[in-house]
């Protein structure tokens, strides 16, 4: 959810000053893009892995303040709830063995985190939504102590006029969840494995649009969040829960687009368009005073961080040069995949996405934006069982994924990813598709057999620790 801030309440003068800064930075980004002044570095990748702290009873363990104080790693940070943390992988070049180095960095950091959690008699679990999570776990008492989270909670509910958030999710199998909250803590029910892809400015728009097209197939491939508050709902219930947790209320004369959104359209050749849309359509939630130089785009980055598109363009800075005048870059943040089930699965998902997104950027299917959005919803609901529209026909998503897997292999090789790494990661995808078993399918099959969510969580943890991909897990 981004960097912390120094205050939680803001004046009209704060809003006016921030708005002026945001307008200037948006204009500067437009000018930099037009002038070819954004970074032209070769593609680089990074990731964020959100995880759960769980206790011996496999319930959420709200211990992240002590955990983070002990570990002292700037790449391991807080999330909204006290029982979640986030691990960040050091950026790597996509070419060669960059994906393997990202995996090694992440697994080393994970091992340190697991060891550190043992000091609280806890452990770590990578899963989209914790099956043992209860509605009562998500209260303000479980919020990580942070001015940013307190200010976001206050601002979002001010925009709602104090009205509570209502979660209403119906599963394809007939289960139904209705829950009411007076805070933003429902967002803590959803943890993800987010990928970052930095690319040259003449390429990033096509990559963004390809990522949008891939969103449905990718969420079907990676679904791992079928249970929320004890109910079997969507295969990737995290999608619905996160969107509804930040749902705005209409106000007269005020445009209130969703803050968690699939987006409003493809960007084409204009990757600055989402930032212009941010300025035009989205009220500022955190108008904090800024001491970073304007060349680092701090207002634009902070505002963009309060708008959660499932495929989000970000502005960053190539480090190593003049801090006051760094080289800005554009990168794609792909947010549709949940955490887990295993590290081989997550790295295989990353390889699939990185290969397929480059392949589709070169030769996209005929896929109107509204169809891509409908595919995304269908795949979140039914995972690998979904049928989607692809290139003018309706097909089972597993057939589409098999075609995309072949294109992903070619896309990775075209980006000069090491052939043995391509083969290792994409073989995991091929076997998952052949078995029809992703994380959600495994969880649902386990629960159908045993009917016990605590046992499901225990067996999931044991299988995750084994390092085997999910298609090999016993039920």
> What portion of residues belong to β-strands?
15-25%
Q: Considering DSSP H and I runs of 4 or more, what fraction of the residues is helical?
A: 40-55%
Number of strands: 15
Q: How many distinct helices?
A: 14
What name is given to the CATH topology? Answer: Creatine Kinase, Chain A, domain 2
Would you identify the CATH architecture?
2-Layer Sandwich
**Largest β sheet strand count, sense and barrel closure:** 7 strands, antiparallel
Runs in which pLDDT lies below 50 for 5 or more consecutive residues are none
Rg, alpha carbons: 21 Å
Question: Termini, distance in Å?
Answer: 35 Å
Structural class: alpha+beta
CATH class: Alpha Beta
Shape: globular
Order of helices and strands: HEHEEHEHEEEHEEHEHHEEEHHEEHHHH
Word description of this protein:
- Helix content is 43%, strand content 16%.
- The protein is α+β, with helices and mostly antiparallel strands.
- The protein has a single domain (12-313, 329-470), classed as Creatine Kinase, Chain A, domain 2.
- The strands form 5 sheets. Strands 1, 2, 3, 4, 7, 12 and 13 form a 7-stranded antiparallel β-sheet that branches. It has a two-stranded antiparallel ribbon with strand order 5-6.
- α1 (12-34) crosses α8.
- It has 14 helices and 15 strands.
Which helices and strands appear, and what pairs or packs with what?
Elements: H1 12-34, E1 44-54, H2 64-71, E2 76-78, E3 84-93, H3 98-117, E4 123-125, H4 147-159, E5 165-170, E6 176-181, E7 193-198, H5 201-222, E8 227-228, E9 231-232, H6 237-245, E10 260-261, H7 273-281, H8 298-304, E11 308-309, E12 311-318, E13 327-334, H9 343-362, H10 369-382, E14 387-390, E15 393-396, H11 397-414, H12 419-435, H13 439-450, H14 453-466
Parallel strand pairs: 10-11
Antiparallel strand pairs: 1-3, 1-4, 1-7, 2-3, 5-6, 7-13, 8-9, 12-13, 14-15
């Amino acid at each position: 959810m981004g960097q912390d801030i120094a205050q939680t309440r803001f004046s009209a003068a704060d809003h006016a000053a921030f708005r002026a800064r945001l307008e200037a930075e948006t204009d500067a980004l437009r000018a930099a893009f037009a002038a070819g002044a954004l970074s032209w570095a070769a593609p680089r990748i990074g990731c964020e892995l959100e995880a759960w702290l769980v206790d011996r009873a496999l319930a959420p363990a709200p211990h992240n303040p002590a955990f983070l104080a002990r570990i002292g790693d700037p790449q391991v940070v807080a999330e909204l709830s006290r029982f979640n943390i986030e691990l960040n992988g050091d950026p790597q070049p996509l070419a060669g063995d960059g994906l393997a180095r990202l995996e090694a960095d992440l697994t080393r950091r994970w091992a340190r985190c697991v060891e550190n959690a043992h000091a609280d008699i806890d452990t770590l679990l990578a899963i989209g939504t914790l099956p043992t999570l209860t509605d009562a776990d998500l209260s303000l008492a479980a919020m990580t102590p942070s001015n940013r989270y307190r200010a976001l909670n206050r601002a979002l509910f001010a925009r709602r006029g104090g009205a509570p958030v209502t979660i209403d999710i119906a599963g394809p199998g007939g289960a139904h969840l209705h829950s009411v909250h007076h805070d933003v803590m429902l967002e803590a029910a959803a943890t993800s494995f987010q990928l970052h892809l930095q690319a040259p400015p003449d390429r990033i728009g096509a990559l963004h649009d390809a990522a949008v097209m891939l969103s449905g197939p990718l969420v079907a491939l990676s679904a791992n969040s079928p249970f929320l508050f004890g109910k079997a709902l969507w295969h990737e219930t995290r999608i619905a829960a996160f969107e509804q947790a930040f749902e705005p209320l209409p106000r007269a004369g005020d445009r209130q687009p969703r803050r968690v959104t699939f987006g409003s359209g493809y960007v084409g050749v204009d990757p600055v368009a989402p930032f212009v849309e941010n300025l035009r359509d989205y009220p500022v939630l955190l108008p904090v005073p800024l001491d970073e130089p304007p060349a680092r785009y701090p207002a634009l980055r902070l505002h963009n961080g309060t708008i959660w598109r499932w495929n989000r363009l970000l502005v960053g800075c190539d480090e190593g040069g003049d801090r006051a005048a760094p080289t800005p870059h554009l990168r794609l943040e792909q947010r549709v995949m949940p955490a887990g089930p295993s590290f081989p699965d997550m790295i295989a998902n990353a390889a699939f996405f990185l290969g397929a997104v480059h392949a589709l950027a070169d030769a996209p299917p005929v896929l109107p934006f509204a169809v891509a959005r409908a595919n995304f919803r269908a795949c979140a609901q039914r995972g690998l069982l979904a049928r989607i529209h692809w290139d003018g026909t309706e097909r089972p998503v597993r057939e589409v994924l098999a075609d995309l897997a072949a294109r992903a292999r070619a896309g990775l090789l075209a980006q000069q990813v090491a052939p043995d790494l391509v083969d290792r990661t994409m073989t995991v995808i091929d076997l998952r598709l052949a078995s029809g078993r992703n994380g959600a399918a495994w969880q649902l099959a386990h629960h159908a057999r045993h009917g016990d969510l605590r046992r499901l969580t225990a067996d999931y943890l044991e299988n995750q620790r084994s390092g085997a991909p999910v298609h090999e897990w016993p039920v």
